[in-house]
Amino acid sequence: MPNVLIVVEAQPNGSLRKATLNALAAGQQIIAKAGGGELHAVVLAKDAGPLANDVKQYGVKVVHAGSAAHCENFLAQNVAPGIAQIATQIGAEYVGCAATQVGRDVMPRVAARLKAAMASEITSVNADLSFDRPMWAGAVIGTVKLSSKVKCFSVRATEFPAATASGAGEVKAFTPEAPASVGTKFVGFKEVKSARPALTEARVVVSGGRGTKGDFKDIEALADELGAAVGASRAVCDAGWQPNDLQVGQTGKVVAPQLYIAAGISGAIQHIAGMKSSKTIVAINKDGDAPIFTVADYGLVGDLFKALPELKAAIKAAKG
Amino acid sequence: MPLKILVTAKRVEDSESKIRANPAGTGIVLEGLKYKMNPFDEIGVEEALRLVAKHGGEVVVASIGSKDCHEQLRQALAMGATRAIWVNHAGPIDQLGVAGCLMKICEREKPNLAILGKQSIDDDQNQVGQYLAEWLGWSQATFASKEESLDSDAEKSKTPALKLTADGAWVTVVREVDGGLETLECKLPAVVTTDLRLNQPRFSKLPDIMKAKTKPLEELTPAALGVDVTPQLTVTSMKAPPARKAGIKVPDVAALVDKLKNEAKAI
User: Are residues B180 and A295, on separate chains, in Cβ contact within 8 Å?
Assistant: First the structure.
């Protein structure tokens, strides 16, 4: 009957990062498949109280709220001691988080502190408590078994449902351990400002690739018509045409919207790994043999600069 | 202040090769595979060379694997690394084993910086740099990037993206995080892991490839380093990812909108 600890992540504005709910759901699956156990969460922040109060409604027995100045900005070297401290205190057998950039940064450091093995970006929890996870950019799904006493994991949010509100757990305040010395200083955060929805949370994503030649006007116009987020392929971000933060793919953002429209994207396996769980995929590409068509529900062979404005007009008309 | 930088050069399957699980599910199909240096490690080697070109010092490259990984070590030496450390180990090894070996190497070599790829493109775990930093008690900056693009003048002039503070005691790192770019200062010694857009690695010229053959390559083993590499993570089986059902091609935008509206109900 294992105890499971999930690390809660805040957005820069202090509110809950939604991917945390998918990590909590993975924690609930571990407990269900183990035939029992307790789900705990840990919040670390300058003032952990408000976020802890929010999280306690999601089927968590105890939310451990650690408030300390050194936890501001959630730097790995500064927060790993406090997370490991709670994991040890509650005898957690599983410690996990969402595989966001924060989770990818922090969780291995926590695992190291706990001398635990870790499985990254898990896509399912199996009956024997092994995990499935993508390898080789998603070309292979590996089943991994962790034999360390404590087992750590990060969760690919698109592959788990979000935990739902189901009664109030208890919030317990604690004083988080600080790192032995101050080795990391936060200097600044340059936000990619956009009026559009966040890429990982949007219902619709319109992405452009090399075929745009850097001209995203039609991509953006269609996105705005659909209330969609804008995404990009690696080639586009490498060329500096769009910010790195918009890259969809194995090493960028993994998205699973209701509708994903890929325009001028050939469909390298690394890109497909980042969007193939989308409910409906549309591909628009001049090259009818482009690999993107192998994962698209609807493919249109043609010039994106002609098709996208037409599509925007037709959607506008269809909406009436 | 001259720098000593430790970098890594893992041997991985070339992503241009067709990677697929074998029918028995015990591994991947090995026939026809090509191998190369993990591209994130290659970016780390490049960054280390740029830093050393600016500040002086040496770049030491390490790899763990069978003798096949000499090819990747020699590639790093041809790019400009000073010497190589080969940890001779042919069997399976997990992140704890790799980080354990690298920790012992860092304790011995005492570098100012360890620059590693953020992940290797075979197991895609993204962990070793963070384990290494924790076990050494060092600061870490993962997913190092820069504000300038790979087409920028800064990149063309091979300016290092990692900047040392004036007193040489800290390194400033721009990182890719959700929603933008974060800047951190890390006290040296530190571990930095590289993201895709930190730099464009150089190609080696033939004379440098020849010269690399005579650069020092030291052989070690996990046992000699005092590291037990018995894995605590085992990949018990491999399979193909779930396939999406085959879609259709539509003739025009009108047909596409009809499908989206009436079949997929996506708009």
Answer: no
